[in-house]
Amino acid sequence: MTSSDSPARRPGEPALTALGLGAPAADPADTSPHAFPDGGTWRTEVPSVEGPEALSVVLKESSRLDVPIHRISQGSGIWMLSDAEITEMVEGCAERSIELCLFTGPRGSWDTGASTRTDSGGAGLRARGHDALAGCVEDAQRASELGVKCLLVADEGVLWTLHRLRTRGVLPADTTFKVSALIGPVNPASFAVHEGLGADSINIPSDLTLAHFTEIRRVSGAPMDLYIEAPDDLGGYVRMYEAAELIRRGAPIYLKFGLSRAPGIYPYGAHLRDVALDTARERVRRGRLALDLLARHGAGTNMSPLGSRLPGPLRRFTSD
User: Fold this and answer.
1) Is 289 exposed, middle or buried (0-12, 13-18, 19+ CB in 10 A)?
2) 12-50: per-residue pLDDT in tens?
3) What contacts 154, CB < 8 A, 6 or more positions away?
4) Cross-strand bridge partners of residue 201
5) Mind listing the pLDDT tens digit for each residue in 37-46?
């Protein structure tokens, strides 16, 4: 089943049509032909869940508000969590059949070198030098040994290295790699390159147009991740009213419940506890608002079954 099987009402459509201001009919050629292997066209993700305490808040609030969650991700990094904390998060997510995704290793914004703090941004979050690459590999192996099955990556070289380790059996075959929004591709060719390098789920910037979604889907069926509300450092965009169209054009897609106008919490520590817990709770509430909107527009169907996590067959570059 694809997203075209359940045509969605557009926001304000009946009222505007009655005034002669209706939108043109959706072009069937814009509909993504892809879906997750379970047949669903969209899944949900709550990002920036920085430790066991924040996870507990998210799980409690998701039960209270009936917000289904497929994936929970963390942004500070594996190295900011103890083995006991990682194990607690793995077990908490497993009890609810939720995929846990933790960020790998050192990245440029917190490493030595001033280029990331210049106006140009320098090399951004990429891993600087051999030691940073090695740190990411160390994080990946440690997290995998503790039961983490999804790793968040912010460097193309790290991605390719981890994919090669996966193909060689150093990392479990069912490990998935998620590309960070902070290096997200912005054109069809770069999206396909990340797929080839081993990505199983690819964040794209939240400011891409609907036409850009269609262009990407003509060359790749790899799952997209998209903040339908983005943090301020990613633009602060709020695209809830486009959610149904984003699913139609972007399937298979993870809808990420981010939060604008919120203080940054990376790298997280106890000094940011109140902010982290409050924002975790509000992200779930934002998710409820987005799901209610999809339901009102008749686009709440075709969600992947809870517990689904694998992306299906993807195209890879040849690895030695």
Assistant:
1) middle
2) 888 988 999 888 888 999 999 999 999 999 999 999 999
3) 103, 104, 107, 124, 125, 126, 127, 179, 180, 182, 183
4) 178
5) 999 999 999 9
Residue whose entry in the numeric block shows the structure tokens 């199983």 = 200
Q: Does residue 252 have a cis peptide bond before it, meaning omega lies within 30 degrees of 0?
A: yes
Helix axes 188-197, 156-167, angle to 10 degrees: 40
Query: Distance between CA 217 and CA 91 in Å, rounded?
Result: 35
Q: What is the pLDDT of residues 272-313, one digit of tens each?
A: 899 999 999 999 999 999 999 999 999 989 999 999 999 999
Positions of E strands within 1-61: 42-46
Tokens, residue 306: 């809870």
Cα→Cα distances 84→52, 56, 81, 144, 195, Å: 10, 15, 8, 14, 33
SS3 41: coil
